[in-house]
């Protein structure tokens, strides 16, 4: 029967969702390494270590495995993204001399 061979699109969307958040976390870590380099090179405090916290909060997608509450996991992810956006804006201002 044709109806028995329906692919599992839920699994595919979950895998793509995990992959997307992993890429976002890697971009946050790369931004943190830019902040680390800038702090070491020009001796201006950039709080580069906070990018690691933002990356871990963004990887909260993996909490879906353990936590059923979807709202809390989304809140954790969004707090990581907002923290990364705030830190990136501060890094930009420090690098361009807008501070």
Q: Span from first to last CA?
A: 67 Å
User: What integer value in Å does the Rg equal?
Assistant: 18 Å
**N-to-C SSE series?**
HHH
Question: Strand-residue fraction?
Answer: under 5%
Provide a descriptive summary of the structure in words.
This protein has 3 helices and no strands. The chain is mainly α and 99 residues long. The chain has one domain. It is elongated, with a radius of gyration of 18 Å. The relative contact order is 0.14.
Q: Secondary-structure map with pairings?
A:
Elements: H1 9-42, H2 50-58, H3 70-96
Helix pairs in contact: 1-2, 1-3, 2-3
Tell me briefly what this model is.
This protein has 99 residues and is mostly helical. It has three helices and no strands. α1 packs antiparallel against α2 and α1 (9-42) runs parallel beside α3 (70-96).
Which key terms come to mind for this protein?
single chain; mainly alpha; 99 residues
């Amino acid at each position: 029967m044709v109806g028995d061979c329906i692919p599992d699109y839920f699994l595919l969307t979950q895998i793509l969702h995990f992959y997307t958040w992993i890429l976002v976390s890697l971009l946050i870590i790369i931004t943190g390494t830019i902040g680390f380099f800038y702090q070491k090179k020009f001796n201006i405090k950039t709080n580069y270590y906070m990018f690691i916290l933002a990356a871990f909060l963004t990887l909260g997608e993996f909490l879906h495995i353990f936590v059923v509450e979807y709202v809390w996991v989304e809140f954790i992810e969004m707090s990581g993204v907002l923290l990364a956006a705030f830190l990136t804006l501060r890094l930009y201002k420090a690098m361009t001399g807008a501070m």
